[in-house]
Amino acid sequence: MKENQYTEFKESWHDEYVRYISAFCNADGGSLYIGINDSGEVIGLQYPEKLIEKLPNFIAQKTGIMPLIHLKEKEGKEYLEIIVQPSAMPISVHGRYYIRSGSVTSELQGNQLNMFLSAKMGLTWESVIEEDFSETDIDLETIERFKILARDRVPSIEQETNLLALMRRLNLLSGEKFKRAAVVLFGKNVQKYVLQARIKIGKFISDTEVLTTDIVEGNLIQQVDRALEILRTKYLLSYISYEGIHRREKLVYPYDALREALLNAIIHREYFVSSEIQIRVYEDKLIIGNEARLQDITVEDLSKSHPSRPYNKLIADVFYKAGFIESWGRGTQRIIDECITEGLPIPVYEYKMGFLYLIFSNERVNERVNERVNERVNERVNERVNELSETEKKVYLILKEKPNIIQKQLAQEMNYTEQYIRKIIKVLKDKEMIERIGSDKNGYWKTIDQY
């Protein structure tokens, strides 16, 4: 016999051991054995009858529950088995709450205690009332933006002019009081009430060396766009692609994948704790981390199709109505699909010390970006050039080699009339192969592969 989630051994009884009763009640139940040593060996009790007489009332006085107590015997040695059932209500001892995890019994404190009590009482963080928050603390611009975003999925919501009616429709009111979900979703000054409801972005040289840091605040709807804009403009490299003659820049990590990952972090994070969502940008990887609880799901399941079980259901519902997310649990798969499409490694999920991390990898960023740029540019240019007629191709190549040449000189060099050259140049412009920069006299020709 070994100690585990459901079993605890003690050689003799001490009154403070009632905390093990509390811990089993607050977890999944279990048995406390008196008269067995840590190795699982029965050593026996001298006066078990006295304990059988004392313990039921003593435990009931301290915890409010009545366990089952059995007298057992092995090889002539008697011991007690105290059987504890899980409790639907939180059980304390002298105002302290304990929990069983594996073979360890520990006291719940701080945020862990808040989370435990709320869960036992059927409450989630987002459904708790924020007493000091009122209608005047709502950001009306965010409300109007939400109504526009939600009109596809909730068509009638755009005509809702009564703010409290809208909040009630979104299940963000309890009576006349606002729930915490309303605060973080639509508040003017969210961090006044929930300081940890923000996103911290950092550029890292190593795990301990930070180059620069940004903190994104505001309500959750604002934070999504703000965080992505800071990442795009300040933290991430871009590579170049082309649509016709027009230059397009794409982030080294797919924008849609980053957005989906950030939305997942916001929806599934644990707001009871004091930590922010963290985005750590390295030279060869990007990590999005948030404190979270995996509910009946493993890290491996996240990379597959899985049921959608948002930890913060009210926040998730508003994000769904706004069109930010889908409701089918495919967000993590879409992240993977986006990275595969862009030729990036599949992102990796890790769960450590209550933090869920999503790691985007892009080894040797500069080499890969340059390689992509060159490959895509060359492929696209070659395809476009090969579509030209022989004459068009000759004109294009001359303009590429001699960008300062004027039409009269080009006509003379090719032994064509100026009228014919003007016609060819118009065709190349219409096909977005060339562009004239500056005046006819002092300007120059820009070809597609120079963008």
Number of beta strands: 19
Compute the gyration radius: what is it?
Answer: 33 Å
Number of helices: 15
Distance between the termini: 73 Å
CATH classification class of the largest domain: Alpha Beta
Low-confidence parts lasting 5 or more residues at pLDDT below 50?
none
Percentage beta strand: 15-25%
Strand order of the largest sheet: 11-10-14-15-17-16
Percent of residues in helical segments?
Answer: 25-40%
3D structure, described in words:
By secondary structure, the protein is an alpha+beta fold. It has four domains: 7-114, Schlafen, AAA domain (Methyltransferase, Cobalt-precorrin-4 Transmethylase, Domain 2, 2-Layer Sandwich), CATH 3.30.950; 125-190, no CATH class; 199-366, 2-Layer Sandwich (Heat Shock Protein 90); 382-450, Winged helix-like DNA-binding domain superfamily/Winged helix DNA-binding domain (Arc Repressor Mutant, subunit A, Orthogonal Bundle). Helix content is 37%, strand content 22%. The chain has helices at 18-26, 48-63, 110-120, 140-149, 163-169, 180-186, 190-193, 220-235, 255-268, 313-321, 331-341, 365-386, 390-401, 407-414, 418-430; strands at 7-10, 30-34, 68-74, 77-84, 92-93, 96-101, 104-108, 173-174, 177-178, 199-204, 210-216, 238-243, 246-251, 277-281, 285-291, 348-352, 355-361, 434-437, 444-447. The strands form six sheets. The protein has a six-stranded mixed beta sheet with strand order 11-10-14-15-17-16, covered by helices on one side. A four-stranded mixed beta sheet has the order 1-2-4-3. Strand 1, helix 1 (18-26) and strand 2 form a beta-alpha-beta unit. The longest helix is centred in the C-terminal third of the chain and has 22 residues, at 365-386. The N and C termini lie far apart (73 Å). The model has no long low-confidence stretch (mean pLDDT 87).
